[in-house]
């Protein structure tokens, strides 16, 4: 077949397949998910900011940054996903597709690094409790967060440069609900072997190294917890880690499924991608408030005292 030489100016997102009779239901469902994600994460941010005991502690600095990332990822993906459940062609300008892919990988990899920092923070708090205030200062935690943002932006820039250095001259139908690397690469008018290899290695190295460090932290944490003699002490130590373990599992399993296996173009990819893009940002505030006594206490104090809110 003869190749069309005009380069594309827009892509069409096919979205996720769904029964037409459920269009309104899905639209309302994702609208609610989006609103609750923004409100839930905003509430955590305000709570951490308003409570002096929380915003002086590294764990809650990390939690505040996680809320910012969740609000960002949700805003990049979910409003575009909701357009899938409206009538008409779902086109996205070429520049919009580039921006979506960049910010998704920038924020996604920053989140990956942040989960690792949170695991390291829990490791120091439980395994080195006496040295923790010296080892994990507010200044160090701010530097670590800054490092995660910089590493994430480099990762995002690398992925977007590699993906869009290739020519796209038609077809323009992205078989996905947002511009992500595997779906966009299928439309390139050039050999994508190098891209697929670099994507696999780059994302593989980021995900695998972060996951390995988190796993190592938790093996050491569990060993330390099992040495605690009182049942109450063990329960409290586990409860500070439970939320983080839950969130990491919900985040990593779908990511590994999407990026770290041979190209299959399975319809399950779309379903798996809903977790890191829409479901995890929605669940994070719930998991952290329900599993964390200090956040619950700070929320109650803040809601009882409107004066605290006015000071924010």
From TrEMBL:
Gene Ontology terms, MF aspect: G protein-coupled receptor activity; olfactory receptor activity
Domain of life per record: Eukaryota
Coiled coil: none
Name of a matching Pfam family: 7tm_4
Record-annotated G-protein coupled receptors family 1 profile domain positions: 40-288
PROSITE patterns: G_PROTEIN_RECEP_F1_2 (PS50262)
Subcellular location: Cell membrane
Keyword Acetylation: no
Entry-linked SUPFAM superfamilies: Family A G protein-coupled receptor-like
Keywords per UniProt: Cell membrane, G-protein coupled receptor, Membrane, Olfaction, Receptor, Sensory transduction, Transducer, Transmembrane, Transmembrane helix
GO CC aspect terms: plasma membrane
The protein's name in its UniProt record: Olfactory receptor family 10 subfamily G member 3
């Amino acid at each position: 077949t003869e190749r069309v030489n005009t380069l594309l100016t827009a892509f069409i997102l096919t979205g996720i397949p769904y029964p037409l009779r459920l269009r309104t239901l899905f639209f309302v469902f994702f609208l609610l998910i989006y609103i609750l994600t923004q409100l839930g994460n905003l509430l955590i941010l305000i709570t951490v900011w308003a409570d002096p005991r929380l915003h002086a502690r590294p764990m809650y600095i990390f939690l505040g940054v996680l809320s910012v990332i969740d609000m960002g990822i949700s805003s990049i993906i979910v409003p575009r996903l909701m357009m899938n459940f409206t009538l008409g062609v779902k086109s996205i300008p070429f520049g919009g597709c580039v921006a979506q892919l960049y910010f998704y990988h920038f924020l996604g990899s920053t989140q990956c690094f942040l989960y690792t920092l949170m695991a390291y923070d829990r490791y120091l708090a439980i395994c080195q409790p006496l040295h923790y205030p010296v080892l994990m200062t507010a200044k160090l935690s701010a530097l670590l967060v800054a490092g995660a943002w910089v590493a994430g932006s480099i990762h995002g820039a690398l992925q977007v440069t590699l993906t869009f250095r290739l020519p796209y001259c038609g077809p323009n139908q992205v078989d996905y609900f947002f511009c992500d690397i595997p779906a966009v690469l299928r439309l390139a008018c050039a050999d994508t072997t190098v891209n697929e290899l670099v994507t696999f290695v780059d994302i593989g190295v980021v995900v695998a190294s972060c996951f390995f460090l988190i796993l190592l932290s938790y093996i050491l944490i569990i060993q330390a917890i099992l040495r605690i003699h009182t049942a109450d002490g063990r329960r409290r130590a586990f409860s500070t880690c439970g939320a983080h373990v839950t969130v990491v599992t919900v985040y990593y399993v779908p990511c590994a499924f999407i990026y770290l296996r041979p190209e299959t173009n399975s319809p399950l990819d779309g379903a798996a991608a809903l977790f890191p893009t829409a479901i995890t940002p929605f669940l994070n505030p719930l998991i952290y408030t329900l599993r964390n006594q200090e956040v619950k206490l700070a929320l109650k104090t803040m809601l009882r005292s409107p004066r605290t809110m006015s000071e924010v």
